[in-house]
Amino acid sequence: MLTTQRRAMIAARLDRDGQIIAKALADELGLSEDTIRRDLREMAAEGLLKRVHGGALPLAPPLPDFAARGAIASETKRKLGRRAAGLIKAGQVVFLDGGTTNAEIARALPRDLRATIVTHSPTIAAELERHDAEVILVGGRLYKHSMVTTGAAAIAAIEEIRVDVFFLGVTAVHPVHGLSTGDYEEAAIKRAIARQSAETYVLATPEKFGAASPHRILGVGDIAGLIVPADMAAEPLSPYRDAAATLIMT
User: Fold this and answer.
1) pLDDT in tens, the chain (250 residues)
2) What domains appear along the chain, each with residue ranges and CATH number?
3) CA distance 135 to 125
């Protein structure tokens, strides 16, 4: 079988099954596992898939810029934001990660809620201008794609705060490879916040499931819950029903 034929088959199988297991595919095609692994390495280098131990996964689709993301699945994000806001209690210290879905949490918070909202996103801080909540904005280098601060200064500030609830933003959710995002520094910031938090929740729209972004943040079992749309298909959610994380449908 020619290299181009193998690669076309790998791409089609990845699209159909959502994963490639190198040994199983090699056995099926009567080829060496090294041949399949070499194909996967080359395809990963070209940005066609994500290599993982034993095989490959689809890449999470590249995100449009921050402004454009606000218009994607906006009603679904509003529902997720309202459900997440309902988990927040007066007196808590809450960390809101960046992103357009988490911005809906800020918009859904009652204006008279007495709580402390910490964020490293200037856009989310601005949403809380007219709220009674105390707002702490963590500084650092601005990662403009996600409109959040990153770097050593941000991590140093985060390490001085104890958080009751953290709402973590991710670009991909996978039952084995966990929660991930596209930027190395941003992933490090998210892990630092999670370490300081008693509970971590993720608001996830359907397109984020079953894929993997380049930089892992946490395992699914490391969070308290996934907040997902009530009308989401059952099959993508089935691997998470037995996980430590609670599924919250809204």
Assistant:
1) 778 888 888 988 887 777 899 999 999 989 999 999 999 999 888 878 888 888 998 876 555 554 555 445 589 999 999 999 999 999 999 999 999 999 999 999 999 999 999 999 999 999 999 999 999 999 999 998 889 999 999 999 999 999 999 999 999 999 988 999 988 999 999 999 999 999 999 999 998 998 888 899 999 999 999 999 999 998 889 888 877 779 999 9
2) 3-57 (1.10.10.10), 66-249 (3.40.50.1360)
3) 7
Angstrom distance (rounded) from CA 244 to CA 44: 31
